[in-house]
């Protein structure tokens, strides 16, 4: 697919290099002459000088036939403007933008722009690694607000029912693996030692899930 | 009229000051610390903060403002502030400053901008008309 990236800083370069290696066609837009280097020698993509909010520059970067657009400049407002132009004027199907200042997250949300690399993602991940090492997520959603976690059920919880783990808005059991077979359990299904459960968990409720698995029910 | 001006120096400050002298109720939003006292001395209400954060605009009275002027030195900031003012706060009249005439074409209704002020473009067109 054709991908347009604006911002050729560390993240822009790394993403452009990776996409190029994976066979995508990549065009990078960068305003600052000083930054416009550092792409690896074998990079097959194009580099377009100019301001990524300018329709003329975006058209030179091939935005009309782009399938994806990623705004990675150091400025929140430039990322928002460019992302919105890419989505609403050029109808690019996949648009992502970097969020720097967490206080500005509501603006990205209000304009419906998917964010990457936010402070919140890093904070959620750090908390995960510091406090909840034993609950390694299989999948995270959004900026890490919701996680899919798998855990083996300790023997002393045998006989508990699936419903006892469900906390509305916080924790839900979505899958049960027993002796190599997977199924979607009923709330009334009794657990056996050795069962592995998949939980959908709000990031703020990981501590609660951990207490459940540690045998602390309050 | 109740008017919010965003941007604390240069053109923004002069516009705010002139409107205040003409009897309008003017609030200035500025990110710079320590300018409140200078603005207050001129009789202007000042809110220190980031106008790209909706709560700052609300604190400045965006919900009941008649006019908002996005007059920072960043065109991107002015566009985002204009759209927030129009979509989130329903400000009846949104006026935005264009710093780089190359960005003139972006400043339209799709960004919530009712009128734009582009000093460079205005000056160039005046020179063309006179020659």
Topology:
The complex is a heterodimer of chains A (218) and B (131).
Chain A: E1 2-6, H1 10-21, E2 25-30, E3 46-49, H2 55-60, E4 68-71, H3 76-88, E5 94-98, H4 105-110, E6 114-116, H5 119-131, E7 137-141, E8 146-152, E9 171-178, E10 181-183, E11 196-202, H6 206-213
Parallel strand pairs in A: 1-2, 1-4, 2-3, 4-5, 5-6
Antiparallel strand pairs in A: 7-8, 8-11, 9-10, 9-11
Chain B: E1 2-6, H1 10-21, E2 25-30, H2 36-41, E3 45-48, H3 54-59, E4 67-70, H4 75-88, E5 93-97, E6 115-117, H5 119-130
Parallel strand pairs in B: 1-2, 1-4, 2-3, 4-5, 5-6
Structure description:
The complex is a heterodimer of chains A (218) and B (131). By secondary structure, chain A is an alpha/beta fold. Chain A has 2 domains: 2-117, Rossmann fold, CATH 3.40.50; 126-213, 2-Layer Sandwich (Alpha-Beta Plaits). Chain A is 27% helix and 26% strand. Chain A has helices spanning 10-21, 55-60, 76-88, 105-110, 119-131, 206-213; strands spanning 2-6, 25-30, 46-49, 68-71, 94-98, 114-116, 137-141, 146-152, 171-178, 181-183, 196-202. In chain A, the strands form 2 sheets. Chain A has a 6-stranded parallel beta sheet with strand order 3-2-1-4-5-6, sandwiched between helices. The radius of gyration of chain A is 22 Å and the shape is elongated. Chain A starts with a strand and ends in a 5-residue tail after the last helix. The mean pLDDT of chain B is 91. Chain B has one domain: NAD(P)-binding Rossmann-like Domain (Rossmann fold), CATH 3.40.50. Chain B has helices spanning 10-21, 36-41, 54-59, 75-88, 119-130, and strands at residues 2-6, 25-30, 45-48, 67-70, 93-97, 115-117. Chain B has 131 residues and is an alpha/beta fold. A 6-stranded parallel beta sheet of chain B has the order 3-2-1-4-5-6, with helices on both faces. In chain B, strand 2, helix 2 and strand 3 form a beta-alpha-beta unit. The A-B interface holds A 51, 53-56, 75-78, 80-81, 85, 88, 101, 103-104, 106-107, 110-111 and B 50, 52-54, 74-77, 79-80, 83-84, 87-88, 100, 102-103, 105-106, 110.
